[in-house]
Amino acid sequence: MGEEEGGNRIKGKRDPWKSLERFLVNVTDRINAVIAPDPSADPVAANKLRIASNTLEKLHWDTAERKIRWHLHWLGVDPAQQRKGIGRHLVQWGLDRAIEDKVWAGIESSAVGEKLYSSMGFKVIGERLPCIEGINMGTVMAWEPKRS
């Protein structure tokens, strides 16, 4: 399977019912935020996070070869459970999907996670990022599939 076919396979996996569900959940969340806002939520901070995420996407992921990828979001291990191989196992799961689909994998790493990701073949593609909208976005790292 060519690289483009792998990316197209990921696109093809999108279930229209799942897409509709995501859309409806998003609409419901927005309506609830207006009608019955969560008193523990900070709408200003949530908006800053959205802006920061969109900026990061445009800076590092919005290219032909990186747009379609397996992105490892919110990967973490309880400090009491670290150093047991759990993080490596979680990352490998994502890499296995990227290998299968012949696409890139990406992550924004904390300083603590950089060593693990580097040892698994991720390369820094964005230096430790400055704060965007007051949010520290970490180091942008990518894993590139082997060319066949």
From TrEMBL:
Domain of life the protein comes from: Eukaryota
Domain N-acetyltransferase: 1-146
A Pfam family this chain is assigned to: Acetyltransf_7
PROSITE patterns membership: GNAT (PS51186)
Alphabetized Gene3D superfamilies for the sequence: 3.40.630.30
Gene Ontology MF terms in the entry: acyltransferase activity, transferring groups other than amino-acyl groups
Name of the protein in its database record: N-acetyltransferase domain-containing protein
PANTHER family: GNAT FAMILY ACETYLTRANSFERASE, N-ACETYLTRANSFERASE DOMAIN-CONTAINING PROTEIN
